[in-house]
Amino acid sequence: xxxxxxxxxxxxxxxxxxxxxxxxxxxxxxxxxxxxxxxxxxxxxxxxxxxxxxxxxxxxxxxxxxxxxxxxxxxxxxxxxxxxxxxxxxxxxxxxxxxxxxxxxxxxxxxxxxxxxxxxxxxxxxxxxxxxxxxxxxxxxxxxxxxxxxxxxxxxxxxxxxxxxxxxxxxxxxxxxxxxxxxxxxxxxxxxxxxxxxxxxxxxxxxxxxxxxxxxxxxxxxxxxxxxxxxxxxxxxxxx
Length: 240
Prior knowledge:
elongated, two-stranded parallel ribbon, 2 domains, 240 residues, mainly alpha, 7% strand
């Protein structure tokens, strides 16, 4: 059947409890939670594990058939649906990561513009915070000074936004027992603990810690054949 999202929920609400299988994608975790609330068992499969079962040409019906075929394999690995908390924490981390990239880009621009006028500053954002003293010590065109001050204001804004998000993440950690356990691991700080909790959840989907390392790509790629082992570089095939 070809159904819209709303019609799909209506159809499943009137269907006896069964297993629903979907490809893991952006909206699949939300769908999995909604369908689970209707009494069904939901399984998510990574798209790369479905692709080998697609026959020749591709359309929605062939994709659906491939998903069913992949789900029937006894050795198939499934993705655990994320909770609302995990998804929202991931959104905070993605936003922070974007802001950090913008801050680095802004500082690099300021360094480059100053270097064009013969002013070489040490790397890092510490020297950018005292930009006013640098401008007072050097003669620069008024147009450039106005531009640098505007970029500095943007840098300060980004810096404040990043600090606010980090405070929010730290406060969330204090109310979560699993995150507190992660913080007890040597070398794990608030940001890493928060990110790990958002990715791991309760961690019950992994048999061992090695499985988690494999799922994030922290293992060498392998191209072994005929009893000859050939290990390549770390693949980073998970969420970089």
